[in-house]
Amino acid sequence: MSRNPVRIHRIARVITEIFAPAVLVTLVLVASPFTLPEVTAAQAAVAAFFVTLLPFSVVVVLARRGKLSDIHIGTRTQRAPILAGTAVSIGVGLWLLTLMHAPPALHSLIYAVLLGLIASLLVNLVWKVSVHAAVAAFLGAMLASATLPLGLFWAAIPWAVGWSRVQLLAHTWPQVVVGWVLGLGIFAAYITYLR
């Protein structure tokens, strides 16, 4: 059976875009009124805006102006200012959510995102880690823990995301594996200390 590199590239590109960190985190936050007690739609909207939508909009504008390599910030040295700016945006969002009396469960989820962001920022100062893989691993673990024993099916998400990043030459397998470990570590901290 012959391999079609163009088709494989297209599949990898679709997986990378559908399961991009901003997409996954936005979905988790938008769905929070259905999964977390007492979260309102307005609180979820504020969380999604400041945690992902505003920072990602800035990334898109900068990428279109040629200030960033691409919307996934493939150049490691360009990541630190974006991740730091995202942390500031998340801080503003947390402050507004406090004023809106958002429940602790929503704050905890956002703290987990912030913890992952800070960990990614620190690693990316010296080495390129796959944030796609980290977020996919966190989400896969979250979905699996909520739907065990059939939840192990969700492990396909981080595997597919990791494969896509390697196929697109955006990351190496070690960078993906470290991303998975990072995401699982953040999930372990979330369920142990934050939730």
Automatic annotation (TrEMBL):
Signal peptide: none annotated. This is PAP2 superfamily protein. It comes from Crystallibacter crystallopoietes. Keywords: Membrane, Transmembrane, Transmembrane helix. The chain crosses the membrane at residues 12-34, 40-62, 82-102, 108-127, 134-157, 177-194.
